[in-house]
Structure formats: C-alpha cells, structure tokens
Specification:
This protein is α+β, with helices and mostly antiparallel strands. The protein has three domains: 2-139, Immunoglobulin-like (Sandwich); 157-243, no CATH class; 286-357, Orthogonal Bundle (Arc Repressor Mutant, subunit A), CATH 1.10.10. 48% of the residues lie in helices and 12% in strands. The strands form two sheets. The protein has a four-stranded mixed sheet. Helix 6 (209-222) runs antiparallel to helix 7 and helix 11 (301-311) packs across helix 14 (346-356). The longest helix has 21 residues, at 165-185. The chain is globular. It starts with a helix and ends with a helix.
Length: 357
C-alpha cells in the first residue's frame, strides 16, 4: 500500500512539473539609443509569417536592462516545438508598424525553435552595434542550426546591390544550392523546413520541383500533424498550379455548359459566344474580391508604386533594386499592402491589378 502511495505521489509530482514547465530565453543585445528597452517574442504560426510582424503574433515581452541583458520566460507555449522570433523595435515604431531590419547596423531579430520546458540563450557580439549583430545561440543544438541557417540566408538580402545580371544569377543559384544542402543534411525537420521556406519558390519551384515534392513527403512522414506541414503542402499546391490555375477540363466544361445554355435559350447566336464571356465565368469561379476605389486611395505612394511593380510581375529582389531600398523593407511594405487589399499572396494581388484594369 505504501509503495502504491509513493508511486501516486511521484506521478502527481511529475504531472505538476510538466504542467508548470517554463520556457526561458536569456541573452544580451546591443541596446543603442535608437531602440526601445523592450524585447518582443512573436509566434510564427504560418510559414508566411516567418518575416512578418503583427501585434497578434506577440506572445511575450520583457524589459531590457541598460547593459543589454534580458530574460523572457513563461509557461504558455504549446507542447510541440514551433518557430518563434525575438526582436526589438525602434523608438518611433509601435506594435502595429514594427519593422525587421536585416544585416548592417540595424539587425534586430533572431528566429528560434522552442516549446515549454526548454531554455535557450541568445547573445549579440559586442563588436557590432546592431541589436542582434553576429549573434550566437547556445543551449540547444537545433537552435545552433537555426543560427547557422541565418548566416546562410541573411547575406541574400543584399542581392539588390549586385549590378550585373549574370553575377546576380550565380549568387541566387549558389544560395539555393546552399539551402538545399543544408536542408538535406539537417536532422531536425523544422530547421530543414526553415531552409526550404527561405528558398525562392517563384524562381526555383518549376526547375527543382522534385526537391519541393520530396520535402513535402518528408513533412507528411515526420510531422504529419504539424500546422507547418499543412502550410507547406498548400504553398506547394499553389505553386504547382500557378501557371495554369484553371485546369483545361474546366475550360471544356464551361464551354460545353455555355453552348448548351445558348442552344436551350435560343436567344444568342453561336457566333456571339465570345471567349471573354468564358473568361468572366472563370473569373467568378476564382472568387476574386471586388476592391473599392477607396481602398486603393488608402495606399501610400510607396505602396502604390510597389503594387504596380508586382502587377508587372517583378520579384521582391527586382522591386528592391528598382526602388533602391532593403529587401526586408520591401517585404514589410508588401505585408501592409496585402493587408489593406485583403489578399494573401502575389498572385491574388496581380489578379486584382488585372481586375482594376
């Protein structure tokens, strides 16, 4: 009987520890006069949120001491490992217009993998003035891999500085190859996913489709219940159909239905059945939202300029090069632009541009 009581006590104790397990993020940043003495922790719930900032993503905050040290802790994370981002904001920013700055003297964020009960330490190099300049991560091998990945990715944000097209293509191909190799040799599937998610789907999906499909199979096998797996498969499906978003059989079906309807009504001759009428029906099937003129009028001059470049089919790198700004700044503008227009991706934005005429 005493033995049974001891077992029950141990089980209760173990349950208490598990339920009350805390996560901890400690570290030190370079806190200059331009930055608020507060660090934010955001949950990356979708792959499209990896470089997006929004108040609804914030899960915790902590004060930063004058010497730059901080400690974020809590017990409110899911039990499954997930992507998180810690970042600082400049004095003139708020939760609603926070920006992520990549590289240089303003690099202000780091991505982590975390769940309840885990601890990690992030320390910025004191040889840099950037909040997260040349930062290091200790306490967890998977997060050290996240740091290695960051060092592969961040230089790519300066592609816009490359002036010669061939040199740019070589640099982009090299980054893509490095990310592929990193994902292939990475034992943690989520870290590998972060690498694949950082590849340029617009540029490489069609020519390297086997890579994306095989990684999708890896996700389904190793992380079948992860929200990221669902995100990835939807993203892959979108890119697989981007160039032919309406299947040929749908054109034939609509054509047959249209001809049958015309014959039954007998009011419109076959000669007047124009292809643009069929396109209108397809347009309706796609359920493209009507955007009021007032919404476009709410766009800033910079947002409208970026919207027009998106409509022309320009990539983010090409837009950054055209406007002579950081790629991270372009991504921030695009996130706000999409939010105002009520769209979630480049294709929908381009469809709205066509609709607007």
């Amino acid at each position: 009987m005493n033995h049974l009581i001891k077992i029950l006590i141990l089980l209760q104790f173990a349950f208490f520890i598990e339920v009350n397990a805390q996560y901890t993020i400690k570290g030190k940043v370079n806190l200059g006069s331009d930055w608020q003495p507060k660090i934010y922790m955001a949950s990356v719930n979708k792959l499209s949120d990896y470089y997006r900032t929004s108040p609804d993503m914030i899960v915790n905050t902590a004060a930063i001491s004058p010497d730059g040290s901080f400690e974020i802790k809590g017990d409110n994370l899911p039990s499954e490992e997930q992507f998180y981002r810690i970042y600082l904001m400049k004095n003139h920013n708020t939760d609603y217009d926070a920006c992520l700055y990549v590289g240089g003297d303003d690099h202000n964020f780091a991505h982590l993998l975390l769940k309840n009960g885990e601890s990690v330490q992030v320390t910025a190099s004191d040889t840099s003035i950037a909040p997260f300049g040349e930062y290091t991560i200790s306490g967890d091998p998977d997060n050290r891999s996240m740091q290695t990945l960051a060092r592969i990715v961040f230089p790519s944000f300066y592609f816009y500085r490359i002036k010669f097209p061939t040199e740019l293509k070589f640099s982009e191909d090299k980054l893509h190859s490095n990310l592929k190799s990193f994902a292939d040799t990475c034992s943690n599937t989520l870290v590998a996913l972060a690498a694949i998610n950082n590849t340029d789907f617009d540029e490489y999906f069609d020519q390297d489709i086997d890579l994306y499909q095989s990684f999708g199979e890896r996700l389904k096998k190793e992380l079948p219940n992860s929200i990221y797996t669902k995100n990835y498969l939807l993203k892959m499906k979108y890119y697989a159909n981007e160039d032919n978003s309406t299947s040929p059989w749908l054109y034939w079906l609509l054509g047959l239905l249209g001809l049958g309807l015309l014959a039954a009504i007998g009011k419109i001759s076959l000669d007047s059945f124009k292809i643009n009428g069929l396109e209108k029906e397809i347009h309706k099937l796609k359920k493209i939202p009507e955007i009021e003129t007032s919404v476009f009028e709410s766009l800033t001059q910079k947002e409208l300029e970026i919207f027009n470049l998106i409509a022309e089919g320009k990539s983010n790198k090409e837009i950054a090069s055209s406007l002579f700004v950081e790629l991270s700044t372009i991504k921030t503008h695009i996130n706000k632009l999409y939010s105002k227009l009520g769209v979630s991706n480049r294709k929908e934005a381009q469809n709205l541009a066509k609709q607007r005429g």
